Task: inverse folding
């Protein structure tokens, strides 16, 4: 057997193994577990007594005014988890 034929057989074996693994993998049916909302950093700073003043630019104020939500999803079949982070 030549080197090229050996590499061809190896490539076919890898493709077959990948197809088998993909065929038996979990098709996730995500379930909602938890949602946590975090206040904007500017609100947290004001609650802690930080004087924001005029030191920030408008883009910094816009960035610090965004809320963050963290959503946790879980697959009941395999136990895999997914964490989504949304900023708006």
Result:
């Amino acid at each position: 057997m030549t080197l090229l034929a050996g590499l061809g057989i190896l490539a076919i074996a890898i493709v077959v193994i990948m197809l088998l693994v993909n065929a038996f993998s979990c098709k996730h049916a995500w379930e909602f577990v938890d949602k946590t909302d975090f206040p904007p950093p500017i609100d947290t700073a004001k609650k802690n007594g930080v004087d924001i003043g005029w030191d920030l630019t408008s883009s910094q104020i816009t960035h610090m005014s965004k809320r963050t939500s963290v959503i946790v999803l879980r697959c009941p079949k395999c136990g895999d988890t997914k964490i989504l982070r949304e900023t708006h």
The radius of gyration is 25 Å. The longest strand covers residues 31-38. Strands lie at 31-38, 68-74, 81-87. The helical segments are 3-23, 41-47, 58-64.
